[in-house]
Amino acid sequence: MSDVVEKTLSALPGLFDSQTGAARITSRLRQLVKSITELTSKHEEESLIKQELSSMKEQVSSPNTSMKQMREIMVRAMYCEMLGYDASFTYIHAIKLAQQGGVLEKRVGYLAVSLFLNEGHELLLLLVNTVLKDLQSTNVIEAYMALTVVAQVFPKDMIPAVLPLLEDKLSEIIRRKAVLALYKFYLIAPNQVQHIHAKFRKALCDRDPGVMTSSLHIYLQLITESPDDYKDLTGSFVTILKQVVDGKLPVDFNYHNVPAPWLQIQLLRILSLLGKEDRSTSELMYEVLDESLRRAEMNHNITYAILYECVKAIYTIHPKAELLEKAARCIGNFVLSPKINLRYLGLKALTYVVQHDAKLALQHQMTIIECLDHTDFTIKRETLELLFRITNAQNVTVIVEKMLDFLHVYEQCTTSYKMNVRCYVPMITLTFAPDNSWFIQTMNDVFSTGGDLLQQDVPNNFLRLLAEGKREEDDQLRLYAVNSYLTVLNGDASHLPQRFLQVMSWVCTTTHTHTHTHTHTQNKNSAMRLIQILVRDLKKSYLLNISVRLYSNFKYHFSSSTLILEGVKRVWGRDGYLRQNETTAPPVDEPSAAVQPSGQQEAAERLEPQPEPSTQNQDKLQLASSLFVGLGAGSSMSLLGKSEAPPPRFRKKPRPHESSSSSSSGTSERSSDSSSRSSHSTTDSFLYGSLLEEEPATSISAFSHTPKSSTANGLAQNKDTKEDRRANTSQILGGDMVIVRPNTFQDKHPSLVSSDLTALLPADLKDLPHSDVISLTSDPSLSLSSCRLFRDEALLLVILISNCTETVIKDVAVQLTCEELEVWNVMNCLEGNSTSVCHYALLMDEPHTNVSFTGTVSYQTQPGHTNTLSFSGTLSAADFIRPLVVSTEEYGKLWLSLSHDVKQNLKLLTDASDPLRTTLNALKDALQLHVVDIIGSEGIVACRLLSGAPCLLHCRVNGAALAMWLRSPHPALPDCILYHCQRALAQH
Amino acid sequence: MICENWIRFILIQNRAGKTRLAKWYMQFDDDEKQKLIEEVHAVVTVRDAKHTNFVEVFICGLTCYTLFPLQFRNFKIIYRRYAGLYFCICVDVTDNNLAYLEAIHNFVEVLNEYFHNVCELDLVFNFYKVYTVVDEMFLAGEIRETSQTKVLKQLLMLQSLE
């Protein structure tokens, strides 16, 4: 933009001289800003700001500082905070300024508050009275400023206090801002704003277009939630849009001669939500959509923004041939535009549209191929996304090849974009793979190039596919997989991602246990060989652990992994993805209905640039024919889209993948290594987190075990674990840890069946509710199991150590680590075939969905010969949740006092006669909740985190779902409980 | 279902990566903010005129990942460069790119009117006024007021206090 002139620093002195009136700034601030601008290094900046902050600290605490000075200090504090330095000591003064100052001070105070504090900050409570006072002020400016701050940060609990005042404001001059503040309230606490819906309608019809615009924000949100409730407003929205398009609004609202463009966009969004899958409502808007398309003809970005929204709306609502044709032409203009932004949007629109009409992609195949080679990541990404959506059995190999190329070429830069590709490849591979060998090879490629960054779903689905089949071919597939792993491991196995090794070991187990036709002993043999290789080559690492478990826990292991996969099925829910025999199924060919008028073919020809038959183009043409094969009728489609037969109309159902991982980033190669590295590690930790969640107790190697030699300080690995272990002397002798009474609980039965182990529990604990005994790990001499006992005030983790041999094992020491706590416990000896018990009281201070513990046991079978055995496991927050027994009345009181809430729709167990009660009982059983009361279609449930924070759940049957609303004083607890409720219901 | 069409943050940076304005509509802690600022700078400055004005990014904010740490919530940065300054808006990946691209331009036009031929130094020394302009035009993460005359009128009213 030419009128924004970049003035250089040399202009500084002149600028200061001219600082008068509007641009006046205080001298201290000027000095600060000036000296910071002159600094060159980050280090200098830090020390300067440190100085500044300490001088500010002195000033604010001095009683002589005037309001005016305080205002100036506040502006400097804002500057420091903006640069990322902590000036939290000024927060309270910002509030004071807003409370006590004159209008000018108030303004700065409010501004500082809205920048410094976020919604949950406790200091905000101090501001409530000031806001109330200012809202009632006769000074419009004061009320205006109060509204501004209310719309940005306001404690949720205080909404009822301010709501009546806000409603009054709806009739005043500043009502536009009031409407927006109400919108904000609706977002954070919808139930409290329910009664003023009538007023929203009034705002929609307000004579001031600004007020109407503001009310659209609320309506967009309301209609997103439940379009059916607002169908009656369709007419109004159509009328408003018509008036806007016709230029009936004041000229003030024009932007570059386009009437209220953002308002148009908002209205188009609302209309598309209303018209979705609703023929009669859609019919009401055809005319105005047509009009919008026609009017938006000016060559300006903002008209393209409207067009884009319009096209999306046309493809979302009930289709009308004439409009679709126009929209398709419009997309064509986008795609063929020389402006890169428009071309990008064209691709985006295509990606959206190909789900309904795959032939459109066909018309633009040459452009798409050009975009595949564009230097801009954003474009490239979108192109691959588009290809992903048009993948079918015929072009899958070429598309996967393109994607894998991408992975290899950009291996050095860690962007989330690659993550995306890594998800796409397996998805389409699973769906469209032409044959076994290609499928396994591609998956191996995916796992080995970036296995650890893959989403958990990918290996899960892959394994599911391998595990499920019961026929001869499936055995062959497994055999092929195992053999290919043998080849992979024959090479250099050291660089292979952990995830890939896991997959291999999983495949071994499934292959081994699931070979159905017994003639295929070959399968079993290969699997065993693979296990041997895994053990031999990778002895030094955590894999030892895997292998040991593979040997010992075959059975359990498999059943737990199927459990995980069940969960995944629900998340993905895409039939095509899970079906395994679809590999050669042709794409669904349906005669196209109104969607494909014949006129479009001509349009296609017009729009398609005639490719020059040069050699360079020859390659592209070839690529095009392989990429877009199968999109037209049959495989013999012509390049220019002149196919005779009707093109396939893809299922309208959007791919479920879209929401969860249409992930991103066309980030170009990063210049700074460190940032890429850090983002890499974040991702890693997420992946580990998920691993922990998904497979309790037998997690193969979710955390890397420290090498056996570094026992003392190498174990504090689980940074997430905020678990505190406290002694309960009556139960747990010796303070922090552990009772070990090696000779007290000996069992003469050598067998290690779980039920026997429960019998070993100390008598005083036997009556507590407890979990099943889970085998943790074992070696030839020792076998470790754990059991969780749910005491009211803590979780008792009991570790049972059994000696499997006949001989006495001496100096048995157990160490358990959660976070950095670690305690050794030395046992004298453990006689042959006996079992000893250690137990730990665990408390959870901060809710975490899952926490892990690791530990080691060291022992001596012969004097001077120490063996160690490490173990690990996961505890879920559900273990730390206890019922909270309250009456309905107490519940009501508590509900109002709690601040953090979360809402979510959950699955309702509809198969029973009383779905609500059944669902709540299922949750109660899984999570130890207390069902307080059930009235009609609503139920209230209460629980707490051990003896700490309560969490209240309000459940309502909402159609086929259970609308759950959780409240707790602790911000993370509702999320945590919600997570476990979802899990519990999914597994039910 | 929550409507995802709102602004997560607005950043103004210069070419050297110095923050000129940062307005957050989503909760981040201080470290995350700094990381984002650096990331946006790294991502945006390497792009040239042949590239689009959009970059998709992956942000792990406090608010989005508590429940499902593995699900990627995606955002895009829509940026526009004026002389040495990058104006960046972060929105949901499904949102309308051009609408925000033009919202940035609208904002800059208002700044230009307000500061009478705006330059980087105006923004540097009057950053707290720029925040007021932001609050006038974008409130609570929504595009609130797009009429330049109305915004300027409102700003002059507040200005009259001084």
From TrEMBL, chain A:
Membrane topology: Peripheral membrane protein
Similarity comment: family membership: Belongs to the adaptor complexes large subunit family.
Keyword DNA-binding belongs to the record: no
Organism listed in the record: Cyprinus carpio (Common carp)
Full protein name: AP-4 complex subunit epsilon
Compositionally biased region (Polar residues): 700-718
GO biological process: intracellular protein transport; vesicle-mediated transport
Cellular localisation: Endomembrane system
UniProt KW Magnesium keyword: no
InterPro entries per the UniProt record, alphabetical: Adaptor_Complx_Large_Subunit, AP4_complex_esu, AP4E1_C, ARM-like, ARM-type_fold, Clathrin/coatomer_adapt-like_N
Biased composition (Low complexity): 659-683
Primary location class: membrane
Keywords recorded for this protein, A-Z: Golgi apparatus, Membrane, Protein transport, Transport
Residues in AP-4 complex subunit epsilon-1 C-terminal domain copies: 882-986
Entry function: Subunit of novel type of clathrin- or non-clathrin-associated protein coat involved in targeting proteins from the trans-Golgi network (TGN) to the endosomal-lysosomal system.
Entry GO terms, CC: AP-4 adaptor complex; endomembrane system
Region feature Disordered, mapped onto this chain: 581-619, 638-683, 700-726
Alphabetized SMART domains for the sequence: AP4E_app_platf
Subunit-level organization: Adaptor protein complex 4 (AP-4) is a heterotetramer composed of two large adaptins, a medium adaptin and a small adaptin.
TrEMBL record, chain B:
Keyword S-adenosyl-L-methionine: no
A Pfam short name: Clat_adaptor_s
Highest taxon listed in the record's lineage: Eukaryota
A GO CC term assigned to this protein in UniProt: AP-2 adaptor complex
Membrane topology category: Peripheral membrane protein
Keyword vocabulary terms for this entry: Cell membrane, Coated pit, Endocytosis, Membrane, Protein transport, Transport
Primary location: membrane
Limits of the AP complex mu/sigma subunit domain: 7-161
Keyword Protein transport: yes
InterPro entries: AP_complex_ssu, AP_mu_sigma_su, APS2, Clathrin_sm-chain_CS, Longin-like_dom_sf
Location(s) in or outside the cell: Cell membrane; Membrane, Coated pit
GO biological-process terms attached to the record: clathrin-dependent endocytosis; intracellular protein transport
A molecular function (GO) term: clathrin adaptor activity
Family according to the record: Belongs to the adaptor complexes small subunit family.
Subunit structure: Adaptor protein complex 2 (AP-2) is a heterotetramer composed of two large adaptins (alpha-type subunit AP2A1 or AP2A2 and beta-type subunit AP2B1), a medium adaptin (mu-type subunit AP2M1) and a small adaptin (sigma-type subunit AP2S1). Interacts with CCDC32; the interaction is direct and mediates association of CCDC32 with adaptor protein complex 2 (AP-2).
The name this protein goes by in its record: AP complex subunit sigma
Species this protein is from: Cyprinus carpio (Common carp)
Classification of source organism: Eukaryota, Metazoa, Chordata, Craniata, Vertebrata
